[in-house]
Amino acid sequence: MPFDLILRGGRVIDPSQKLDAVTDVAFAGGKVAAIGSALKADPGTDVRDVPQLIVTPGLIDLHTHVYWGGTSLGIDAEEFCRLSGVTTAIDTGSAGPGNFAGFRKHVIEPSQVRILAYLHVSHAGIFGFSHRIMVGESEELRLMNPIEAAKVADANRDLIVGIKVRVGLHSSGTSGTVPLDIALQVADEVGMPLMAHIDHPPPSYEEVLARLRPGDVLTHAFRPFPNTPATAQGTVKKAVLDARERGVLFDIGHGKGSFAFKTARAMLANGFYPDTISSDIHMLCIDGPAYDQVTTMSKFLCMGMELSDVIAASTVNAAMALRRPELGSLKPGSVGDATLISVRAGQFDYEDAVGEHLIGDRKIVSEGVVIGGRWWHPK
After folding, report:
1. What are the φ and ψ backbone dihedral angles of 374, each rounded to 5 degrees?
2. What is the pLDDT averaged over residues 164-192?
3. Mean pLDDT value of segment 341-361
4. pLDDT tens, 110-129?
5. Which residues does the annotation list for site: Transition state stabilizer (predicted)?
6. 5-56+332-378 belongs to CATH 2.30.40.10
7. Known binding-site positions
8. In 3D, which of 200, 205, 120, 143 has the Cα closest to residue 168?
9. SS3 47
């Protein structure tokens, strides 16, 4: 089969193959076709010379809100992904069983970028999240809709990757772990992982972790006090270490209020890296402090994570959390998505969710996106 596209001469970093080499990547039929030196182009092959750029598997943002027009927090997935180098956006609970059909028909199906979703156990998902209105959907237990959530998740397995619930004072009031317990029943019923949001107690970080199963995701994992994973002495709480040992996954989910440099420094100093790095992009943080996926990745690069580990946390690790091994890799036969980035040197001002600033010496910049084996952006 002739190649549709060849990315020529870039530095290919693909943690799924433990690959870091200057080489070519070719695509055909919407998939990765070959990796190697001096791959042969046919007359109709689109050849892009990228010797100054880094080629990675298509970036996966495990925590986004892209139900644009259907919820007040939703942003436009295509516009965001073009600028952020993301080829797969995972919407985390914007829609529930009562409005997922609209999300699917009006946003997901027309989108050029891949959108997958965690379905919220609450009937209308995250419906009251804006600059003026802030209603915790999990506070009103009458909105919990486990029966319909199970039906909708089962009927949309091509797009729904798990069940979402938000617990904490801001999202579930004083109902504690009750919404989490309901969501876990749905996840068990349909055989899917769960993603749990956590904010201020109740419940406590430890109470949430105690209920999560292997493969479940705790997002906002490096959040500030209260409900932080680090002790006042800068060590990692035992409950956190025990949860990782049994297979619970820790996701960043930066967002508007859920990531602190202080927490991240303590966790990284103890060798506790996030499983996945995600932006939690939505209308209230797209203009700061989160901005986008590559900015979130840049913060971890500037705090000492190796570039290959940062890329892994946004590619192969995310694909494994989604149970979609065809994503997050440039192995031949994988989905034909790739992201081209550069790492610029200089002085860059980064801000966390509590107002602390970090002057970093590097910045990851999206330089191009390949989707389905075709060059997508910039034109």
Report:
1. -125, 140
2. 98
3. 98
4. 999 999 999 999 999 999 99
5. 166
6. yes
7. 63, 65, 164, 197, 220, 280
8. 200
9. strand
